[in-house]
Amino acid sequence: MHCPFCRHPDSRVVDSRTTDDGASIRRRRQCPDCGRRFTTVETASLMVIKRSGVTEPFSRSKVIVGVRKACQGRPVTEDALAQLGQRVEEAVRATGSAELSTHDVGLAILGPLQDLDLVAYLRFASVYRAFDSLEDFERAITELREQLPPTTPGGLDEDLGVPAPASAAD
Ligand SMILES: [Zn+2]
């Protein structure tokens, strides 16, 4: 790894620690030439194959951008979006695959988004699952109503977008 400051072709690792979620390693490095320090982050390679066939690295921020669109006008904070991004990344990394399709990523978004905001979930699902009729929406809403605990009267209308606690389902 060359030095980002002086381009010296070598650097020395002075500290190395695993991040809290265990998904990456941060290394503190020092350049033996100019003496400056910098940090590198090492994660397992995770590639996403797009519908066009193009492959690109998995990007948590792209997930967040997509979900943010579905959350327009909804009481969803940036913090909650960041948490959702983290949950999605953890879920896709937990599959152990080095390559995913955009379909897999979308699938991993649906669960956390359903916990976050039901209206945003329906918007996202309508695109992801290519709803093309009112019946598709009705079916999705029926599914949601069946999943909601009976103690949540009103379901969709009552939902205030409060992030649910970390899922115990995994
Ligand atoms: Zn240097």
UniProtKB/TrEMBL annotation:
Keywords: ATP-binding, DNA-binding, Metal-binding, Nucleotide-binding, Repressor, Transcription, Transcription regulation, Zinc, Zinc-finger. Its cofactor is Zn(2+). Residues 46-136 form the ATP-cone domain. It comes from Actinacidiphila cocklensis. GO terms for biological process: negative regulation of DNA-templated transcription. GO terms for molecular function: ATP binding; DNA binding; zinc ion binding. This is Transcriptional repressor NrdR. The gene is nrdR. Belongs to the NrdR family. Residues 147-170 are annotated as: Disordered. Pfam families: ATP-cone, Zn_ribbon_NrdR. A zinc finger (unnamed) spans 3-34. Negatively regulates transcription of bacterial ribonucleotide reductase nrd genes and operons by binding to NrdR-boxes. InterPro entries: ATP-cone_dom, NrdR-like_N, RNR_NrdR-like. Binds 1 zinc ion. PROSITE patterns: ATP_CONE.
